[in-house]
Amino acid sequence: MAGMSKPLRCENGCKLTKQQRKCIQTLRHHYLVCPRRDSRWKVIRDAENEMRRLEEAEMRRLDEEEMGRLDEEAHAISDEEDEEEEEMVGVERRLSDLKMNRRVERQARKEWEKTMKKEKLQKEFKAEDDVIALKKGINKHLSQFGFLRINTILGQTMT
């Protein structure tokens, strides 16, 4: 124990009292509240705070640059999406126009077919009317000469 002496000064250079030298607890307390510690470590703490502040500023700048780049990309993507959407709207319009044109064509074709059927039926009815009138005329002339009616000759019954 002769070689181990109690410290007279703390790490920061403060003189220690006898009480602080005797009791480890009071010695630890002194190290925690040492007035010189604050002045000596203040420079280190300020430097650390400055480094931390600079790092945070750099991170914020990088984040802002990244956000700016991401915003530009987002705008470019949204512009592309808008263009694609406009193209899709144009395609949908053209498609609806084509569908409408097909519908109109189909309707026009149906109407044309109806009119053609009507005309065909009218022609057939007219032809039948002509045939009936012709038969009546022939029958009239044949009956004048004493022949049978044309309908019975042709095997048809006339009403």
UniProtKB/TrEMBL annotation:
Region: Disordered, residue numbers: 64-92
Compositionally skewed regions (Basic and acidic residues) per UniProt: 64-78
Ranges of Acidic residues composition bias in the record: 79-89
Superkingdom to which the source organism belongs: Eukaryota
Protein name: Uncharacterized protein
Organism: Artemisia annua
